[in-house]
Specification:
Elements: H1 6-23, E1 32-36, H2 42-50, E2 55-58, H3 61-70, E3 77-80, H4 89-92, E4 98-102, H5 105-118, E5 122-127, H6 144-150, E6 157-163, H7 176-191, E7 197-203, H8 210-215, E8 220-223, H9 225-228
Parallel strand pairs: 1-2, 1-8, 2-3, 3-4, 4-5, 5-6, 6-7
Bound molecules: pyridoxal-5'-phosphate.
Length: 233
């Protein structure tokens, strides 16, 4: 019985990232691999960290706060990638490197308020619902411009880019349009030169479709299953 180790999984993923980047004329170093560690225990997380992964993504506030304490010896950039309830913002506001899931005004208000209390700025991505079918979360493309305008007084919030999730499919080519749509939207937003908005980051692509996402311009891919599902043969 051969156990596929986390380090081997990561090495394979890095190769795919490099190939997809080169295929589309991009520099592999411009793509950040985020290890998605939801439900993964700290021992396995350490294995990933030891291969050089420093960006970790979680979708639950309680899990971030617990793991933040337990892994405090490591230099980790924590990413909040899941739906964020406003009443929990205060627990992670000064622990998190990037919030990927800003999708409503009430949440923006709370982030701004808590950031002001701590005298910090907070980096966020706007979560966009391109396909409008799999999830109820995320702004529609048509809503995003007026949303950004409403955020203009929240000077503690720095919008760094966009995030989306594609529907699951057994043929990732079918969701290429989602990634292409997010890239196009980010260019449109970028050209407007909004205050506090820089379209540097495109967080798109998961285990099933990250190569396609990279070909379409992803700068962050969020990978869980591909890293942590240890397969045994
Ligand atoms: C779980 C999750 C991922 C990782 O998905 P995998 O298919 O396991 O790679 C990425 N992004 C978000 C928002 C998630 O919730």
């Amino acid at each position: 019985m051969i156990k596929i180790k986390i380090a081997d999984n990561i090495e394979n993923i890095r190769e795919v990232i490099e190939k997809a980047a080169i295929k589309s004329g991009r520099n592999p170093e411009d793509i950040t691999l985020i290890g998605v560690t939801k439900t993964v225990n700290e021992e396995l997380m350490k294995e990933a960290i030891e291969t050089g992964i420093i960006d970790l993504g979680e979708n639950k506030v309680q899990e971030i706060t617990r793991k933040f304490e337990k892994l405090s010896d490591f230099d980790i950039k924590w990413h909040m990638i899941g739906h964020l309830q406003s009443n929990k913002v205060k627990y992670i506001i000064d622990k998190i490197h990037l919030i990927h899931s800003l999708d409503r005004l009430s949440l923006a208000k709370e982030i701004h308020k808590r950031a002001e209390e701590k005298d910090i700025n907070v980096n966020v991505l706007l979560q966009i619902n391109i396909s409008e079918e799999i999830t109820k979360y995320g702004l529609k493309s048509s809503e995003v411009f007026s949303f950004i305008e409403k955020l203009s007084d929240f000077n503690r919030i720095k919008i760094k880019g966009l995030m989306t999730m594609a529907p699951y499919t057994d043929n990732p080519e079918k969701v290429r349009y989602v990634f292409r749509g997010l890239k196009k939207l980010s260019e449109e937003i970028g050209s407007k030169k909004y205050k506090n908005v820089e379209m540097e980051i495109l967080s798109m692509g998961m285990t099933n479709d990250y190569d396609i996402a990279i070909e379409e311009g992803a700068t962050m891919v969020r990978i869980g299953t591909g890293i942590f599902n240890e397969r045994k043969y």
